[in-house]
Specification:
Fructose-1,6-Bisphosphatase, Chain A, domain 1; about 30% helix; binds 6-O-phosphono-alpha-D-fructofuranose; 2 domains; about 25% strand; alpha+beta
């Protein structure tokens, strides 16, 4: 297969993105540029002590903001605002959405929601981290400033979503509703190459990812599912599943996408509504996983059906291989 750069791939597949006259390419190009800058800073973080550690501030979540969280947020927002193709951005790091309120951007058709650096507390210990993004067409009138309603759309309305994983290599994985493709960054020439065409998650898997430290306060169906994963009678080889939990959503998600598996962040005593945010973490990954043949639910609901009530709304989150989610859903519905 001709080795595509992501730029060539976008041009080749532009026609499959209905109604777009190149704006999506510009959005992905902005994300590509910002990710190269962020990747460079993450990879030198171990050497450049001044960009490690806490910024001393807290984000809207009350979470300790790392210096690289602030850097990544500024980098993605600057790159996205510069192309004149989106009218606003909502970010994990900002209390409210940011309106790019000028004539050019007010005429733009799209909005972007982003978690600029998920799992950033892992950077200091050299664990992979990621960026997650989601793209919608605006609902409010063209030529006017973006509105909150533009950002509070159900996941089914997404026109694109994806993630960057900054690990042993930096990868961009995204969908525009026609399958999922992965691109690996070659820092030597500064280009992302198509390395994982048409990604599909195995329909079943033998990996479960959850913070078992919270087990005692999980709802009974989740406890029963974890017991099911640990029993030896549910796979041909009669072995229990493997427990793999990195504590970095994008890293756990990426491994499970390739190998098969389930990631769970249930409601618990510490997180009564779950920890992960619907708009810029759960929905974009749900779009990707369904395009790759998997499933994503929030207890009885399909993630992509949920209409967000607020920008930073948290939901219980279960995502991964189809048959693994089916089994969990069976236990939830039977209310065991
Ligand atoms: P816990 C990182 O803070 C994050 O949002 C995800 O990347 C990760 O999967 C999860 O939280 C880890 O949370 O409570 O298990 O440490």
């Amino acid at each position: 297969m001709k080795s595509f750069t992501v730029g060539e791939f976008i041009v080749e597949t532009q026609s499959t993105f209905p109604g777009s006259s190149g704006e999506l390419s510009k959005i992905l190009s902005a994300i590509k540029l910002a990710s190269k800058i962020v990747s460079h800073h993450i990879n030198k973080a171990g050497l450049a002590k001044e960009i490690l550690g806490s910024s001393g501030a807290e984000n809207v979540q009350g979470e300790d903001q790392q210096k690289l969280d602030v850097f990544a947020n500024d980098t993605f927002i600057n790159a996205l605002s510069a192309r004149g193709v989106i009218c606003g951005v909502a970010s994990e790091e900002n209390d409210s959405y940011i309106a790019f309120d000028d004539r050019v951007n007010n005429d733009a058709k799209y909005v972007v929601l982003i978690d600029p650096l998920d799992g950033s507390s892992n950077i200091d210990v050299n664990v992979s981290v990621g960026t997650i993004f989601s793209v919608f067409r605006r609902k409010s009138g063209k030529g006017t400033p973006v509105q909150l309603e533009d950002f509070l759309q159900k996941g089914d309305n997404q026109v694109a979503s994806g993630y960057l994983i900054y690990g042993s290599s930096t990868m961009l994985v995204y969908t525009t509703g026609n399958g999922v493709n992965g691109f690996t960054f070659d820092p030597g020439i500064g280009v992302f190459f198509l390395s994982h065409p048409n990604m599909k998650i195995p329909e079943n898997g033998a990996i479960y990812s959850v913070n078992e430290g919270n087990l005692s306060s999980f709802k009974q169906p989740v406890k029963d599912y974890i017991t099911y994963c640990q029993s030896s009678n549910n796979l041909e080889d009669k072995k229990p599943y493997s427990s793999r939990y990195i504590g970095s959503l994008v890293a756990d998600f990426h491994r499970n996408l390739i190998k098969g598996g389930i990631y769970m962040y249930p409601s618990s005593a510490n997180a009564p509504k779950g920890k992960l945010r619907l708009t810029y973490e759960c929905s974009p990954l749900a779009f990707l996983i369904e395009q790759a043949g998997g499933r994503a639910i929030s207890e009885e609901k399909r993630i992509m059906d949920i209409v967000p009530k607020s920008l930073h709304e948290r939901v219980p989150f279960f995502i991964g291989s189809k048959y693994m989610i089916d089994k969990l859903e069976e236990l939830i519905k039977s209310g065991t």
